[in-house]
Amino acid sequence: MTAAYSVQRAEQRVPMALAVQIEGNESLPGVETTFTENVSARGARVTTIRRWRTNDRLHFATLPGEFRATARVAYCQPRRWNGFAIGLEFLEPTGHWVIQSPAVQEDHQRG
């Protein structure tokens, strides 16, 4: 008998289209301007024309905005029509992101 397991995310994803730039693809160098599909405090799902490999590192920046991050590609999935969707985990974020993690929100409330 096969048991079905559901993976629970630590943080909720929020559907949100933000203009961003990503760069660092080895196969197709250059900066790509694109959009998020959804976001969380620790990452985002982003549409892209480039194929990325799991664990690739890239540079992520909001447009306009002050948020920048080195990010890890958690997955790269082909989209139905064209391009790909990549899941990103922020590794070295700087600036203000649209969603704060609960620990950061708690610190702001105390301070």
Helix content: under 10%
CATH architecture: Beta Barrel
Adjacency order of strands in the biggest sheet: 2-3-4-7-6-5
CATH class term: Mainly Beta
Shape: globular
Give the count of structural domains.
1
The total of beta strands comes to 7
Query: How far apart are the first and last residues' alpha carbons, in Å?
Result: 53 Å
Count of DSSP-assigned helices: 1
Strand content: over 45%
Relevant CATH superfamily? predicted glycosyltransferase like domains
Nearest-integer average pLDDT: 87
Could you characterize what this model shows?
By secondary structure, the chain is mainly β. It has a single domain, classed as predicted glycosyltransferase like domains (Thrombin, subunit H), CATH 2.40.10.220. Helix content is 8%, strand content 46%. It contains 1 helix and 7 strands; from the N terminus they run βββββββα. It has one helix at 102-110, and strands at residues 14-15, 19-23, 31-40, 43-48, 57-62, 68-78, 84-94. Strands 2-3-4-7-6-5 form a 6-stranded antiparallel barrel. The model is unreliable at 1-7 and 105-109 (pLDDT under 50).
